[in-house]
Structures are given as structure tokens and as C-alpha cells.
Amino acid sequence: MHIQRNSQVGLVDETAPLLPARRRRGSHPQDAAAPGLDPVARRLYLSHFLSTWNSRVFEFGAVLYLATIFPGTLLPMSVYAFTRGVSAILFASVVGQYIDSGDRLQVVRTSIVSQRLVVATSCVLFHLLMTRQTTEAAELGLLGVCCLLACVEKLASVMNLVSVEKDWAVVIAGGDSKSLRVLNAQMRRLDLFCKLLGPLFIALLDGISTETAILINLIMNLASVPVEYYAIARVYADVPELRIRKCLTIVENPEQSRSARNWILKRWQSLTTLSKKTITDTRLYVRHPVFLPSFASALLNLTVLSFSGQMVTYLLSAGYSSAEIGGARVFSVAFEVVATWIAPWLMDRIGPLRAGLWLSSWQVAMLAVGTVVFSVFQDRPWVSASGIVGGTILSRVGMRGFDLCTQLIVQEDVEAESRGAFSTVEAAWQSAFELVSYASTIVFFRPEQFRWPTLLSVVAVASANIAYAYFVYLRRENDSPGEE
């Protein structure tokens, strides 16, 4: 693997090939290294971009569709989001086992096809609900089906994300830490690009017509399948290491297989196996040396200070216009994009361990300042709301940078055969904390009560900082030479 460095400033050259150039058949040796991005990285980015773009567009689009179909109530949208989040918790171990035991290409292709088909089906159902071609009872039934499809979409999304970011990226980097940082940063920029423009794109279409937005969403999902399918297959073909099976064996009891002759017993055995796998994966997660940074990163999802639906609703009640909220959201994502350059630069100089501590502390400090302004000016709602807006925007540099640092630590320390199990348990914790944030605004649903979810968010971020600081302390203690 080849990473070029600028001799003057020591920065990683992010345009350098991530992999040694592979010679094409019949090509001259001098032509093997093409300028710009390595073809393998380019195809990986293409597949990751399409997957992330479609996921972000549909995730935000579904909220808009439900808001239009069921106006005047947040209940359908809340049930939809809650069900989607719960599925990621309940079936995290199943997804992790499939990632760890399955063929890498088959796993990613399964995630691509299943996610696209589920989204396409959901778009059809949303269109039926939108055109009011069903009875009220049928509407509730279709909403229930949409919730179930959302669960499958969420699991497929997690499967793709974990496989590509936590497994494929590590294998492609080939043990080169700097290359892995570049790969992580580039994919995170793609994610942030999709996070910024995906919702804006579907919102503009929804402004024209919700039916138009649903139709475009459907077409994009179906059209991207062959491109994603081909791109990821080429990456798999060009990196022989991806074809090496991970060292994971699943031992089945033949006596149990022979005795499971009736449906009830089979279902019970499946439930028992799933429960045991969940316990095993959770034990692996909490006992792993990098549990604390992973848990700290997951804990950051327990927040209402992220320009999500909860914070947007409060800002509207405080006097912010939709345009002002949109502008603030653009600034927020822009700061996250900046973090994808700051974090690798900082890690290159002081290491990911210290960089994570600095960035996490920055996030806590900015949110604390914003919360103080929010609390002091309660009698002036717009000024008070502006306090948490400013604090949230500035904190995103620390949040996103800290996420990159912990991701690198986890990638380098988690064994190949355990990456799927570890990462899916981490994803389950992320979903659990996200559900807690939803619950906080269900309990404190009035705008004047928003200070309590805000306080809970700051406490969660501060707790994550403390947990990570303790991990840094332990790591330094273990790395320090023993006393003579």
C-alpha cells in the first residue's frame, strides 16, 4: 500500500492511491499506476455513495411522506421511527453473525438488493396511501406493513454499513493505519455529503409534489442496484484478501437438529440460539479492550441537539422560520465535513487516542456554552434557541471528529472474525440511545419543557467524554513501562 506524504507539512495525501496499482492485462508496467484515486477505492466510494445516498433520501423522505399522509399528528411517524430503531436492537446479533460467517461479497450484495427492493415496495405503499385509494382500516394495515418494511430496510442498511466500513475498509487498507484513516475520512465525507444534500433534494421534490418525490425515490433506488452490484463486485475481484474467509466456525449440535421435528420445537430452538448468540456477542462487546471508546461513541446518539425532528419542532415553536432552520442545518453539516479533514490531520500529529480526547472535550464545551445561553435567556425564546443552535453547530466538529477517532481505534483493535458481532452490538446500542432520546421528547413533549431533553443530551455527551477519558487513562497505564 502506498501513501504519499508532503515533505513540508507532513500531511497525508488523500489523492494518493490507497492500494498498490494493479497491472491490467496487456498493459505496460509504466502504465500500471494511474493518476488520481486508485480504481479500487473509486469503486468502493461509488458503491458506498449510492448506498448512503439512497438510505438518507428515503429516511428523510419517509418522514415527509407520513407527515403529508397523516397531517396534524406525529404518532404515525413516531411509531414508524420507533419500530425501525427497535429492529436494529433485536436483530443486531443475527446481522452480525451473518456478516462474520458469510461470504463478504454475498453479504454486501444481499444488503444492496434487499434494501432497494424494500424501499421500492415502501414507495408503492406510500403512493397508495397518498392517493387515498384504500379504506381507513386498509390505511392502518398498510402503515403496519410500511413499519415492517422499515425494519428490513434498517437491518439491510446496518449490514451494508458494517460490512463496508468496519470490515472491507480494514482489509483493503491492508494494515496501513494512515491508509485506513484516509479511507475512513473519504467515506465519512460521502456520508456527510449525502446527509446534507439528500434530505434537501427530496424536500425540494416534496415541495413540488409528494407523489413526484415518491416516484423519483422509487426510480433512484431501482436504477442504482446494477451500479452498486457491479462496483462492489469489482472491488471484491481486485482485492484477493477479501476472498479469504474469516476464522469463524459455528458448531451445531446434531442431536438438537435430529430432535427438532416439530414446528414449535424448531422455533424454540431458533429463539434459544438467537438469545445465546445475543448474550455471547454482548459479552464479547463489553469485555473487549475497546468497549469504552465504542460505547462512548454510541452514547452520543442520546441527544436531541442534532437538527433532527425533535430540535426542528422546538425551533419552529421558538420563532425560527423553515429557511432559518435549513440554513442552520447546512452550517451544521458543513462543520461536520470540516471535521473529516481536522480529525485525520490531528490524528497524524498526536495520534488517535489524544485526538479523540481533544475533540470530545471540544464537543462538551460547545454544548455546555450553548446550554448556558439557552437557560439564561428563557424569557427571550429566539435568543435562547439561538444559544443551542450555535452550540450544536460548533459541537459537530468535535462529534464527527471523535467518531472518526473511535472508529479507527475499533477497526485496528477488533479481530477480523469478531468485527460483525462487535459492530452490530455497537449499532444496537446506538439505536437504543436514539430511542431514549425519542422517549425524552415523548415525556417532555411541550416546547417549554425542551430544557429537560437538552440537559439529558449534555449529560450524555459529558458521560461519553468521561468514559473515553478513562479509556485513555487505562491505555496509557498499560503502555507505560513497569516500575523497576
Automatic annotation (TrEMBL):
Membrane topology per record: Multi-pass membrane protein
Annotated transmembrane regions: 57-75, 455-474
PANTHER family cross-referenced by the UniProt entry: SOLUTE CARRIER FAMILY 40 MEMBER (PTHR11660:SF57)
Superkingdom of this protein's organism: Eukaryota
Keyword vocabulary terms for this entry: Ion transport, Membrane, Transmembrane, Transmembrane helix, Transport
Protein's UniProt name: Solute carrier family 40 member
Pfam families with a match to the protein in the record: FPN1
Lineage: Eukaryota, Fungi, Dikarya, Ascomycota, Pezizomycotina
Subcellular location(s) per record: Membrane
